[in-house]
Amino acid sequence: xxxxxKDISDNxxxxxxxxxxxxxxxxxxxxLMLYDLFAVNMSYFFALWLxxxxxxxxxxxxxxxxxxxxxxxxxxxSLVMHNILKLYQSIWKFASFAELKxxxxxxxxxxxxxAILITLLFKRMPISYYVVGAAIQFMLVVAVRFAYRFIxxxxxxxxxxxxxxxxxxxxxxxxxxxxxxxxRDLNNAKEANECVCCIIDDDKNKWGRFIDExxxxxxxxxxxxNVEKYKIEKIVLALxxxxxxxxxxxxxICKETKCxxxxxxxxxxxxxxxxxxxxxxxxxxxxxxGREPVKVNxxxxxSFITDKVILVTGGGxxxxxxxxxxxxxHNPKQLIVxxxxxxxxxxxxxxxxxxxxxxxxxxxxxxxxxxRRINQVFAKYKPDVVxxxxxxxxxxxxxxxxxxxxxxNAVGTYKTAYAAMMNGCKRFxxxxxxxxxxxxxxxxASKRLCEMIIQSxxxxxxxxxANEILPLHVHNEDTDGSMLDVANNICNAETEFxxxxxxxxxxxxxxxxxxxxxxxxxxxxxxxTHPDIIRYFMTIPEAxxxxxxxxxxxxxxxxxxxxxxxxxxxxxxxxxxIKLSGLQPDVDIKIxxxxxxxxxKLYEEKLMSEEGLKTTPNQLIHIGSPIPFDTDExxxxxxxxxxxxxxxxxDEIRDLVARVVTTYRPAGEQGSEEKGEAYVQQMNIVMQNYxxxxxxxx
Length: 698
Fold this sequence. Notes:
Blueprint: H1 2-51, H2 61-84, H3 97-121, H4 127-164, E1 168-173, H5 177-187, E2 194-200, E3 210-211, E4 214-218, H6 223-229, E5 234-237, H7 244-254, E6 260-263, E7 281-282, H8 298-305, E8 309-313, H9 318-328, E9 334-339, H10 342-355, E10 361-365, H11 371-381, E11 385-388, H12 395-400, H13 402-422, E12 427-433, H14 442-462, H15 486-490, E13 496-502, E14 504-506, H16 512-521, E15 526-528, E16 534-535, E17 537-539, H17 540-553, E18 559-562, E19 568-569, H18 570-580, E20 591-593, E21 614-615, E22 621-624, H19 631-647, H20 650-660, H21 673-697
Parallel strand pairs: 1-2, 1-5, 2-4, 5-6, 8-9, 8-11, 9-10, 11-12, 12-13, 13-18, 14-17, 15-20
Antiparallel strand pairs: 3-4, 6-7, 16-19, 18-22, 21-22
C-alpha cells in the first residue's frame, strides 16, 4: 500500500509539474501577443510622429484617423500571421537564424499588407510612414524575442570568464575548418573544463587575426614561446589533412613541452563537417613515425576474398585476429579461425559474431603441429586461401626453447602447407618477419626455414613433382602421418605459396610499446636493451592489409616486403613515449639499459642483399626474388631437423639449423667436428629412406 501511495503521489507531482510548465508557456504566449499588438501598431504611429518632426500636434487629423481605424484590422492580421509562422511556438532561449528569417518574412508581408490596405480603405499615407513603420516593427519584434538569448549569452560569458581561471588552458594547432569546429565545440561545452587560449597556424596571412575572439599567434616555430606565455596545459593538433611527415615534425616540437597532447585523426576517417572534440584522441607513438599509412586496393582484396573459404591459423593472435576482422569485412563464403589458445579464439569469435551476424564463422581449436588435426580441418572445410599466422615469435623465449621454435614454426608450417596442397587449397600465405633476414636467433632462423619451406613447395609444384614432397610425421604407428593416398591426392597440386615479411608491429602481443606504457604508468624505470638498437615498425591494421594485398598479387614463391620507411631507435621511441605522457626522460622517468638479450641484434633487415627487389602496383609493397637452394637436400635436412627437435637435442639443434640456414649466425656458438660427423651420418640415413619412399611413389 505504501508503494502504491508513493507511485500515486509521484504521478500527481509529475502532472502538477506538467500543468505548471504548461501554464507558464501559455502565460508567455499571451504576454508576447499583447506585446506584438503594441509593437505592430505603435511602430507605425512612431513613423508618423517622426515624419512630422516628433510633434504630435502637427500630425494631420486625417492621418491619425486613418491609422486609428486601421488598428483593429492590422492587429488581427498580425496575430494570425505571427501564429502561422510559429512565432509563438519557438523556444527563444535557443533562437537562431531560422527564427530571424521567419520574423523577416512576417514583417515583409505585413508591411506590404499595411501599405496596400490602408491606402485603399482609408488614406494614402506619407512614403516614410510605410518604410519607417515596417523598420521599427521589425526592430521591436526582434528585440523582445532575442533579448532573452542575448541576456543568457552575456550571463554565460561572465560565468565562463570565472571558469576560465580554473579550466585547463588549451592551444589548438591548425586554424582551418577542423580547428574552428574544435574551438567552437570546446567553447560551447556545458562544463567549461577547457579554455582555448591561442591558435597556431603556419599560414602567415592568419597571424594576428582572431577566431571566436581567440588569437592566432604564429606558426610552429612559435609553439614553445606561446606555451610558456599562455601557460598552456594541453595542445590539440587539428590538422586532419596533414601528411605524416608534417604531423611528425609538429609533434616533435610539441613533445618538448610538458603539455598533454591530443590529435585529430585523418580526415578520411571523419565525416565531413562533423568534427567534434569527442573525435580527439591521445597522440600515439605511431604518429611520430613520420610514415604515411599503407593504403591497399580494397577492390582487389574484395574480389579476391568474396565467396571464398578463408582459413586463418593463429587467428586469435595480434596479426591473426586483425586478419580475421579485415577478411570478415569482405564477404567471404566462410571464415575459419584456427588457434591452439582457446581464450583468444573465443574472444575474436565473439567479436566477429557481434559485429558480423551474417558471417559464416567457424572457430576451431587445434595445433598446426598436429598433422592429424590440421588435415581433418582442411579435408572438412576445403579452404581456398590460408593465412598462416600461427607461430612462436618471442626471441628470448625461443632461445631458451629452440626445439619448440623448430617444431611449431618450421614443422608446423610444413604440415599446414602439406595439408593445404593435399586438399586443393588455391593459395597459402605465410606470415614471416624481418628477423628471418641474416638471423642471429633461433626464432628468426625458424622463420627463414618457413620461407624456404613454402618456396620448396612452390618449386616442386611448378616442376610437376609435388608427389616427391613427403609428409613429416612423428607417430611410429602412422607411417604417413594420417595423410592417406598421398600420391593420388597431390599429383595435380596447384597451390600457390607466398610469404609476407614485415617488421615489429606496434601494440601486438610482446611488443615493446605496451611494456613501455606499463613501466611509465608505474613510474619507471623504462628498460631499453641498448641505446643504439633500431627496429622497423608498422601498425597491426597495416600488417593485416599487407598480408591481404599480397594474397592478391601472388603468383607463387614470392616474398613480399613492406616499405616501412626509416627504422626507429628504440631509445628514441621510449623517450618519445615518456614525453607524450607529459614527463621528462631521465628526470621524471629513468631509462635503464639492460644489454642485448640472447640472439638479439642491433638492427633488423628487410631483405637479404642477394634477394633484390621488384615493384608491385602498390608502391609500398615489394617482392624479393627467391634465393636459389637445393630443394631436395633441404627437404631431407628438414626431416633431420624435425627428428632432432622432437628428440629434444637442444645442444645440437642450433648447429643443425646453421647448416640448413646458411645465413644464420648464432652468437658465440661453433659447430664441433663430432657434431658434423654425426650430422653427415644421420643425413645419409635420412637420404636413403627418402629415396626409397620417392621410388615407391613413382
